[in-house]
Amino acid sequence: MPPSVHDLLDPAHLAQLGNYALLSRTAVEGFLSGMHRSLFHGFGTEFLQYRDYTPGADLKYLDWKLLARTDRLYTKVYQEETNMNLQLVLDTSASMDYRGERAACTKLHYACMTAACLAYMAVRQGDNVGLFAYGDTLQEVVPPGHRTGQLDRVLQALTRLRPAGPADHDAMLQTFGNQLRQRSIVIYISDMLEAENLLPEHLKRFRLRHCDTLAVQVLDSDELDLPIEGVARFHDIESGREIISWAETTRDGYKSQMSDFMNKLRDGFTRSQVDLLRLTTDESLGYALARYLHHREALR
């Protein structure tokens, strides 16, 4: 039995594929084939004028409402739009290297899979795509473009990403903002840990520069419910600090603090008028693809 659309978008399935080119094509084409109606109908064009209907012309462009009012046959003429820019911004700090026992991959690998699928969809739509990835330093920059091989350049850059150090959000996002030249869709992907005060303000600046901005928070399920039992050693990947604690006595306080963090982050993005999409590493990549289509249509 061939895999279902759900299987094709399942990170456990996608993480087994050998490269981002195959992964992105498998996920995106599966996503599109599973849609009950094409979200792509009408993308890339805008209404220009009417013309008289000629026999044999495609009936889907016939204006039936105008026919009912005037009793005459007219078809709509469209013109192609200019390409859009999709800017993918990834946090590659050390905390993104976490993988719980229930997850198919690390948070960074999930973020890269998401970015690869979004890049493939953007190129498929005729859009420009670029990549900006950072941890404690700048890791990869691929300026947005639509030249032959642009998708390969983005996918190859994703394969080179390695989690390292604390995220220097202030310096790196300032650098990214300085190179924004055109109105774009900016999709920022990160676990956003300990950055609930910084990130809403940084991403707000992109929105004020007329960029439609989506924040995608990627978490491991373990980070939400702390499922471990007994004596546990908690290791901070970025600082190297360790503490040993009894998990049952830690869980309630941890979950309360995690809830406070997520609520504060959500409220900050709401005030900044930036959309927030929360995903765990066991969730379908279809959510991110659908949200990208929504933002692309809103910008169009």
CATH architecture of the largest domain: 3-Layer(aba) Sandwich
**Number of separate structural domains:** 2
Mean pLDDT: 84
What strand line-up does the widest sheet have?
5-4-3-6-7-10
Q: Which regions are unreliable across 5 or more consecutive residues at pLDDT < 50? A: 36-48
Query: Can you give the helix content as a percent range?
Result: 40-55%
Beta-strand portion reads: 15-25%
At the fourth level of CATH, the homologous superfamily of the largest domain is: von Willebrand factor, type A domain
CATH topology of the largest domain: Rossmann fold
Helical/strand content category: alpha/beta
Radius of gyration: 22 Å
Please tally the β strands and state the result.
Answer: 10
Shape: elongated
H/E element order: HHHEHEEHEEHHEHEHEEHEH
Q: How far do the termini sit from each other?
A: 39 Å
Relevant terms:
Rossmann fold, 300 residues, DUF58, vWFA_dom_sf, DUF58 domain-containing protein, elongated, two-stranded antiparallel ribbon, 11 helices, 2 domains
Q: How does the SSE layout of this entry go?
A:
Elements: H1 5-8, H2 11-14, H3 20-33, E1 45-52, H4 64-70, E2 74-80, E3 85-91, H5 107-124, E4 128-134, E5 138-145, H6 150-159, H7 169-178, E6 185-190, H8 199-208, E7 212-219, H9 222-225, E8 231-235, E9 242-246, H10 247-272, E10 275-280, H11 286-299
Parallel strand pairs: 3-4, 3-6, 6-7, 7-10
Antiparallel strand pairs: 1-2, 4-5, 8-9
